[in-house]
Amino acid sequence: MARISFAVVGVVSVLGALVACSKDEPPPATPAQPAQPYTQPQPGQPGYVPQPGDPNYQPQPQPGAPAPGQLATPGPTALACQNDSQCMTHRCNLQYQKCAFPCVSDADCIQGATCFVAGGPAAACLPKPPGAQ
């Protein structure tokens, strides 16, 4: 029993000495370069992006949202299809040959259905309630 205790104390002591004597020093700090002030490109310059109020401003679609008239990119759980009838209340995205699921807008749904986006990753096209336009 005493031999085991001496062995454990010896191993711990050697490991402690190795860790304490390690020569890892942090790299020397390099002097920071002064920050260049950012200047917004002016109209006509490369890199200029029109802002609201500019005559050439055209609103950009939100990231993840399809362009008008374009269907959503199908998710991994979307069913394969060749036409809308195979997708129940969703439309068939012929580019991917999959149903536009999950939907992002009403453009992904057949006529008479609306996209219920509160479902998040499971957003689905549901029939519109009676009397809804």
Write the layout of secondary structure elements.
Layout: H1 2-20, E1 92-93, E2 98-99, E3 113-116, E4 124-127
Antiparallel strand pairs: 1-2, 3-4
Global Rg: 31 Å
Q: Helicity range of the residues? A: 10-25%
Tally of extended strands? 4
Strand content: 5-15%
Per DSSP, the total helix count is: 1
Summarize the structure.
By secondary structure, the protein is mostly loops.
Overview of the molecule:
With 133 residues, the chain is mostly loops. It has a domain at 84-127. It is 14% helix and 9% strand. The protein has 1 helix and 4 strands. The chain has one helix at 2-20, and strands spanning 92-93, 98-99, 113-116, 124-127. The protein has a two-stranded antiparallel sheet with strand order 1-2. The protein has a two-stranded antiparallel ribbon with strand order 3-4. The model is unreliable at 62-66 (pLDDT under 50).
List keywords for this structure.
133 residues, little secondary structure, two-stranded antiparallel sheet, 14% helix, 9% strand
